[in-house]
Specification:
- By secondary structure, the chain is an alpha/beta fold.
- The protein has eight helices and 26 strands.
- It has a six-stranded mixed sheet with strand order 7-4-6-5-9-8, with no helix packed on it. It has a six-stranded mixed sheet with strand order 16-13-17-21-20-18, sandwiched between helices.
- A hairpin with a 5-residue loop joins strand 23 and strand 24.
- The protein starts with 11 loop residues before the first helix and ends with a helix.
- The model has no long low-confidence stretch (mean pLDDT 97).
- Bound molecules: adenosine monophosphate and magnesium ion.
- The site of magnesium ion (MG) has 7 residues, from loops.
Length: 410
């Protein structure tokens, strides 16, 4: 056994494989307007019925003409035969003439070039064109963005703001999407009270509920918030039964460790089963995965930073796959470590960190401070996780894998 083996702890990648293999995507769909589609998952491929742009158009305010009408050397004077603002259908260009044209206006048949007005001299009647133009100059060709009958977005794609624009650009006003995943969240712990009230001795504010609600919302899911559940078997069973009856997936916080007050895991074992327990992840070791009466169950640890990490790293891809999404894996980037972790990691550690640019313009990872599983402020300051890989070490100046929060919270 090497220094880093932790008997019974599932490495993160292996656990993710097991989880993703068991994830069953929902199939129910609904139609939403493109305007309302942000973050939704496409239920069908989307095909364009038009070219974008639909016709050759001008990229400049200027003059449009045919290069065969240019003098071989020096400038050329051509009479102006029409004026083409955007939105107007032009008539074919009379041979031997030029036309005034504006950005976005259709290029008339018979013309092949636009010259920007800054390079011309003109009156109402004629224009002096500069020498040397090439056919196609300053013309955006028909279909340069999208060709008619091509697939512009595939089933399983999560709609981003630019996708909304792209769908609109081909005239699509509504799309079929999977209905929103319903995720039940509940926070266990007798010590918890909600913010907005005064703390009594022994109490702490429930923060996990808000972290989880935020993460679920950011991923586009509907949450069924079952609030705080007391640390006893009956209350836990009642809450889990309710969650299983109403949600597609259950995400809990706390109560999955080995203490006498940890009732969640024992209760899930009674109502369904646990397939996976304890990951080689830091923070977040006691994570449990299974089902409650057939409804998938993810039992996250109680510590606030562990909740944030395990939700982003483990729950997110599982839930996104269940939602029907295909683009579920974050894209790690390699940047330079600005810190040392000389001891081989016994669990893969997701260090709350910040990507900063140093004086040489190099992207570096800096730790944001205390990495205890109970400390949430360092996650708030950070913009990503620097990954201390299982069994590996990190040295200042060496490459480290970095996961941007912007990639994990969408
Ligand atoms: P547990 O896994 O239930 O033993 O919880 C581990 C630690 O996380 C304990 O210190 C709990 O008080 C704390 N904790 C559990 N749930 C929450 C919560 N919802 N908000 C803030 N802290 C919590
Ligand atoms: Mg607890």
């Amino acid at each position: 056994m090497s220094c880093c083996d932790q008997p019974g702890l599932q490495p993160v990648e292996q656990a993710l494989e097991i989880l993703l293999r068991s994830a069953k995507a929902i199939t129910e769909t609904e139609i939403v307007s493109v305007e309302q589609a942000l973050g939704r998952v496409l239920a069908e491929d989307q095909r364009s019925t038009v070219d974008v742009p639909p016709a050759d158009n001008s990229a400049m305010d200027g003059f449009v003409f045919n290069t065969t009408d240019l003098e071989p050397d020096g400038s050329t004077t051509l009479p102006l035969s029409q004026r083409i603002p955007a939105g107007l259908a032009p008539t074919p260009l009379q041979p031997g003439t030029a036309a005034r044209i504006f950005t976005g206006a259709e290029v008339p048949a018979g013309a092949d070039t636009v010259v920007m007005q800054e390079n011309c001299e003109w009156t109402d009647e004629e224009v002096v064109l500069p020498p040397s133009s090439t056919p196609g100059d300053n013309i955006r060709p028909q279909g340069q963005d999208i060709q008619s009958d091509s697939i512009i977005m595939s089933r399983g794609h999560r709609v981003k703001p630019q996708d909304m624009g792209l769908l609109a650009s081909v005239g699509i006003a509504e799309i079929p999407v999977y209905r929103k995943l319903k995720v039940a969240i509940l926070s266990t712990g007798d010590e918890l009270i909600e913010p907005g009230t005064t703390l009594q001795p022994g109490q702490i504010y429930n923060s996990n509920r808000y972290t989880l609600a935020g993460q679920m919302n950011a991923l586009g899911f509907d949450t069924i918030d079952l609030g705080i559940v007391a640390d006893n078997f009956e209350a836990t069973e009642q809450a889990l039964r309710k969650a299983a009856a109403t949600a597609d997936c259950i995400v809990t916080s706390g109560g999955v460790s080995v203490g006498e007050e940890d009732h969640v895991k024992v209760c899930v074992e009674k109502l369904g089963g646990i397939d996976l327990w304890k990951l080689a992840i830091k923070p977040g070791k006691p994570l449990a995965f299974g089902n409650v009466l057939g409804t998938p169950f993810l039992g996250l640890p109680g510590n606030p930073a562990a909740v944030f990490v395990t939700c982003a790293i483990v729950a997110r891809p599982y839930l996104l796959k269940t939602q029907g999404a295909t683009d579920i894996a974050p894209t790690p980037i390699q940047i330079t470590a600005n810190f040392d972790r000389p001891k081989p990691a016994k669990r893969q550690e997701y260090l709350r960190a910040k990507l900063v640019i140093n004086e040489n313009g190099e992207a570096c990872a800096e730790l944001t401070g205390n990495q205890s599983s109970g400390v949430l402020s360092t996650a708030s300051i950070g913009n990503g996780f620097a990954v201390h890989p299982l069994g590996g070490t990190i040295q200042t100046g060496e490459p480290v894998q970095f996961l941007l929060f912007s990639d994990l919270l969408f």
